[in-house]
Design a protein that fits this description.
The complex is a heterotrimer. By secondary structure, chain A is an all-alpha fold. Helices cover 65% and strands 2% of the residues of chain A. Chain A contains 13 helices and 2 strands. Chain B has a single domain, classed as Phenylacetic acid degradation B (Ubiquitin-like (UB roll)), CATH 3.10.20. The chains are: A mainly alpha, B alpha+beta, C mainly alpha. Chains in contact: A-B, A-C, B-C. Chain C: This is Phenylacetate-CoA oxygenase subunit PaaC.
Chain lengths: 330, 93, 254
């Protein structure tokens, strides 16, 4: 989903005959589920696609700190504050792991971050939505982290070694995020006041569809999906993942005693899955293009932090240089 | 951060016998790299040993395609960052 | 005042300082000058709020009026808060953020070191765990002060400015009052003279290494936090921090 719209540069898959010997060997390795490591030969398209996908994934983690950062100073109890702080810190850490994985492909972290700040790189659309009440902290953990986990568990088997291993590490850390979020909502629904219960339903009403949009467009509208799947960068289709998410989430929603803002959501006995309404694709593309509620603010915050931090980073380098020279002179 | 150098990070856990490569950090100097590594890679563990090495100080063995094909789980080849070896629990995930 | 009254006061001071400084660091979430610093700042903030919780829980037991740690943190107004004024100063630029952290960390480090030998076992236990964390906080903040002081011209200027504007809040860190003296006499709290000496020693050492000039020893000091008279900042900090508990006072679960 961090690859909501990642260009692979391929309009269609190459046939075996069209591939060069190296490309054939590479493709065989991928089919054999052998991990591709940094020093291995890889098609330029594979390398570029990965850089785009991993960098967007990393950007998402970092920008993802902001909707929660919006409430960390207002967390209502010591326990909730500590939990939220730890979660946000994990997200920063995940961003760092991912940038590290990206750098093994020869990409430069500063350059990629600059693209983000210029609006030239994408990040997960969900983080362009505002967090408006405390229950959003629960809904974000439950729905957003929940959706991310569905995607990430599958990505643990992605073909590129460093990315796969980062996913394993991230999944290990992420498992408690979703549970925490759900617990916030469950506690409020079970023991909360009427006002708190209303907060929970309100949060779900606003974040439900954006969470579903995280999985990206229908696969038949996603030409790059095919190539990504062949290279095993992507392991399951957008629609498959979205369906997995809905199927696991609806029972949780019902257990909360809440509803989804989707009159078409219902169990289909024949298919063994939940049917659901059509996503507002206009909204999806608007948000991805930069016209979501918070796009401007999110990017501005990130850009300011790094730009205004330049003197800090320079000072550290200058000091290190001085220390080095002193040590050499001594 | 191109102003801050890339360092590779190796961690030996409390009950571990040797340092394992866990990833990389950017830092202005080794001291900062050590602290950044501690904050990023060991915040859930106690009593670990951390090594940080500037990435360009590392000489890596050349990767032979065969080696990689038949020794996929023994990750000896690295240029920048590669990550945690598959933890034992990965079967349950 | 009785020893018990002094102890309650003392615990609230420890808790409130940690809480307010933790809150200031939370404000920086997503805005740190480097991603690595996001990790570091949140790490310090988590430690501080965690320590605050420990102190609040002990205080709540002694105060014993039905309030728990959360009520102490979220339902006391500014005049009841006992944090050091240093902790409520705004983040401004990173030199001020690190300067504030450094001055506090030195005080915090020596205080906790002494508290590990407190005649009060509960305090000694909390302090022992906190000391490990704060030793690391101090290492980081003193390094940043040195980096800025002895880095570039710009960082030096900013760091010297930071020292200058924060200096008037340093007196409160090492000037004892009755509560401190009662605690010291009971062997519960640190020797106040020694604390001041240790604080000055380390601060001077680091500032010198950083090529920075400390403020005058007899400079006018802005105090009052320890008895509930704060700067204008605290009201706003609490308004934000306590909003949900105040707006939904009947909510018992969050």
């Amino acid at each position: 989903m961090y690859a909501q719209l990642v260009e692979t540069g391929a309009k269609r898959l190459k046939t075996k005959e069209e591939m060069s010997p190296e490309e054939r060997d590479f493709q065989e390795k991928v089919y054999a589920e052998t991990k591709i490591e940094p020093k291995n030969w890889m098609p330029e398209g594979y390398r570029k696609t990965l850089i785009r996908q991993i960098s967007q994934h990393a950007h998402s983690e970092v920008v993802g700190m902001l909707p929660e950062g919006n409430w960390v100073t207002r967390a209502p109890t010591l326990k909730r504050k500590l939990q939220l702080m730890a979660k946000i810190q994990d997200e920063a850490g995940h961003g760092l792991y991912l940038y590290s994985a990206m750098e093994t492909l020869g990409a430069d972290r500063d350059e990629e971050i600059e693209k983000l700040h210029q609006g030239k790189a994408k990040y997960s659309s969900i983080f362009n939505y505002p967090t408006l009440n405390w229950a959003d902290m629960g809904a974000v953990g439950w729905l957003v982290d929940g959706a991310a986990i569905v995607n990430q568990v599958v990505l643990q088997r992605t073909s590129y070694g460093p990315y796969s291993r980062a996913m394993i590490r991230i999944c290990k850390e992420e498992s408690f995020h979703q549970r925490q979020g759900y617990q916030i909502l469950l506690d409020m629904m079970r023991e909360g006041t009427e006002e708190q219960k209303a907060m929970v339903q309100d949060a779900i009403n606003r974040l439900w569809w954006p969470a579903l949009m995280m999985f990206g467009p229908h696969d038949d509208e996603s030409p790059n999906s095919q190539q990504s799947m062949a290279w095993k960068i992507k392991r399951k289709s957008n629609d498959e993942l979205r369906q997995m998410f809905i199927d696991q989430t609806v029972p949780q929603l019902e257990f909360l005693g809440c509803t989804a803002p989707d009159p078409d959501l219902k169990w289909n006995e024949e298919t063994g899955h939940y049917d659901f309404g059509e996503i507002n694709w206009q909204e999806f593309y608007d948000v991805l293009k930069g016209n979501g509620p918070c796009n401007r603010e999110r990017i501005k915050t990130r850009k300011n932090a790094i730009d205004e931090g330049a003197w800090v980073r320079e000072a550290a380098v200058a000091y290190a240089e001085k220390q080095k020279q002193r040590a050499q002179a001594a | 951060m191109s102003e801050w150098r890339l360092y590779e990070v190796f961690v030996r856990s409390k009950h571990g016998l040797n340092h394992k490569h866990v990833g990389s950090v950017h830092a202005a100097d080794a001291e900062m790299a050590m602290e950044n590594a501690r904050d990023l890679y060991t915040r859930r563990n106690e009593g670990v040993s951390i090594w940080v090495v500037p990435s360009d100080a590392i000489t890596a063995s050349a990767s032979d395609e065969k080696e990689v094909l038949f020794d996929p789980s023994e990750d000896k080849v690295y240029r920048h960052a590669s990550f945690y070896k598959l933890p034992d629990e990965v079967g349950h995930m | 005042m009785t020893q018990t009254e002094a102890l309650k006061e003392y615990l609230l001071r420890l808790a409130d300082s940690d809480m307010i400084l933790g809150q200031r660091l939370c404000e920086l979430c997503g805005k740190a000058p480097a991603l690595e610093e996001e990790m570091a700042l949140m790490n310090v903030a988590l430690d501080l709020v965690g320590q605050a919780r420990n102190w609040y829980e002990y205080a709540a037991e002694l105060i014993d009026d039905g309030r728990d740690a959360d009520k102490l943190a979220f339902r006391r107004d500014a005049h009841e808060y006992r944090n050091l004024l240093m902790t409520e100063q705004p983040n401004e630029d990173y030199a001020v953020t690190m300067g504030r952290q450094f001055f506090f960390d030195v005080y915090h480090y020596f205080t906790l070191k002494s508290l590990t030998e407190s005649s009060d076992e509960r305090i000694a236990g909390i302090a022992a765990k906190a000391l490990k964390e704060v030793t690391y906080h101090l290492r980081r903040s003193s390094e940043w002060v040195k980096r800025f002081g002895d880095g570039t011209e710009e960082s030096h200027r900013r760091m010297q400015d930071a020292v200058d504007i924060l200096w008037r809040f340093t007196g409160e860190l090492i000037t004892p009052d009755d509560t401190d003296r009662v605690m010291a006499e009971a062997g519960i709290g640190p020797d106040t003279d020694q604390l001041a000496k240790d604080w000055r020693g380390m601060v001077n050492e680091v500032l010198t290494q950083a090529t920075l000039t400390p403020g005058a020893e007899d400079a006018w000091m802005y105090m009052g936090g320890k008895h509930g008279e704060h700067t204008e900042h605290l009201g706003f900090i609490l308004a934000e921090m306590q909003f949900l508990q105040r707006a939904y006072p009947d909510a018992t679960t969050w």
